[in-house]
């Protein structure tokens, strides 16, 4: 069976990619958001399509055009993205969580536009944790004993004593996914830029793979790696 109808290393496979940044509503006109452009996830979706896969792109506020030839599902908030991903993951052979999911959302969403207070005081926003979509997808995969490769992304800055890749190793273990693509971020690095560097870590151990270049080149490298990973694990 060829899901994508295409030729290539992912021919016949279904791939779910999430991309962009979620927006968590405060009221009908305001939200808490992040600086993800969606470029990297869109590039992965296009590379998977070019590798012959049938691609579902769960998109949260892209600043770039979605690629042609993929099924687009809009998901604005983390909760909407969670629902879209759980649904599409049920029939996916590969899941790539490239979206920047807000860790918190406002505890309450005002039904009408919030007005300034009369006395000049500023509001204090109460936040609650969002669900961890990646962990949930891994749990669902494990419970259903689905043969599915789950790939996470992590943007890390590193700290005194801990490198971004060390944080990535810890995150890979915590999330339970198969691959984690670690981006080193800082003021001028990665967000909205066209060139990038990714370090790919595998739960199976082994060497770190460094992918460098434009986001398209890096995406093609990641898709090649995914294809090799699938080939390495017997059905
Ligand atoms: N992710 C997710 N759901 C969330 C948060 C993150 O699915 N609520 C996914 C992202 O899409 C990404 C991976 O988890 O693939 C890592 O995201 P990251 O923000 O680096 O991880 P967190 O667990 O939120 O850790 P941190 O405290 O460093 O933000
Ligand atoms: Ca986070």
The overall average pLDDT, rounded, is 93
- Separation, N- and C-terminal Cα atoms: 16 Å
Provide a count of the helices. 5
Give the overall shape, derived from the CA principal axes.
Answer: globular
Ligand identities: cytidine-5'-triphosphate, calcium ion
Q: Which structural class do you get from the secondary structure elements?
A: alpha/beta
Q: Which ranges are low-confidence, i.e. pLDDT below 50, for 5 or more consecutive residues?
A: none
Describe the protein's architecture and organization:
With 235 residues, the protein is α/β, with parallel strands linked by helices. The chain has 5 helices and 12 strands. Strands 5-4-1-6-9-10-11-12 form an 8-stranded mixed sheet, with helices on both faces. Strands 2-3 form a two-stranded antiparallel ribbon. The chain is globular. The mean pLDDT is 93. Cytidine-5'-triphosphate binds at residues 78, 97, 99, 101, 103, 130, 132-134, 152-155, 171. Its cofactor is Mg(2+); FMN. One of its GO terms (cellular component) is phosphopantothenoylcysteine decarboxylase complex. Pathway: Cofactor biosynthesis; coenzyme A biosynthesis; CoA from (R)-pantothenate: step 3/5; Cofactor biosynthesis; coenzyme A biosynthesis; CoA from (R)-pantothenate: step 2/5.
Give a summary of the structure in a few sentences.
The protein is α/β, with parallel strands linked by helices. Helices cover 28% and strands 27% of the residues. It has 5 helices and 12 strands.
């Amino acid at each position: 069976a060829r899901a994508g109808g295409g030729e290539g290393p992912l021919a016949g496979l279904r791939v779910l990619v999430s991309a962009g940044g979620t927006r968590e509503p405060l009221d009908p006109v305001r939200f808490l958001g992040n600086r993800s452009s969606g470029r990297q996830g869109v590039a992965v979706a296009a590379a998977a399509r070019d590798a012959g896969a049938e691609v579902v792109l769960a998109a949260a506020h892209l600043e770039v055009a979605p690629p042609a030839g993929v099924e687009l599902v809009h998901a604005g908030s983390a909760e909407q993205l969670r629902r879209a991903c759980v649904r599409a993951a049920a029939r996916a052979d590969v899941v790539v969580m490239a979206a920047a999911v807000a860790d918190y959302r406002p505890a309450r969403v005002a039904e009408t536009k919030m007005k300034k207070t009369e006395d000049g005081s500023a509001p204090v926003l109460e936040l609650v944790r969002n669900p961890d979509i990646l962990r949930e997808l891994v749990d669902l995969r494990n419970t259903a004993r689905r043969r599915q490769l789950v790939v996470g992304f992590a943007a890390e800055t590193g700290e005194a004593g801990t490198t971004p890749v060390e944080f990535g190793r810890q995150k890979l273990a915590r999330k339970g996914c198969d691959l984690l693509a670690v981006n080193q971020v800082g003021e001028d690095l990665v967000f909205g830029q066209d060139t990038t560097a990714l370090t790919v870590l595998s739960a199976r151990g082994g060497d770190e793979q460094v992918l460098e270049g434009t986001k398209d080149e890096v995406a093609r490298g990641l898709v090649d790696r995914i294809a090799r990973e699938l080939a390495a694990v017997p059905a």
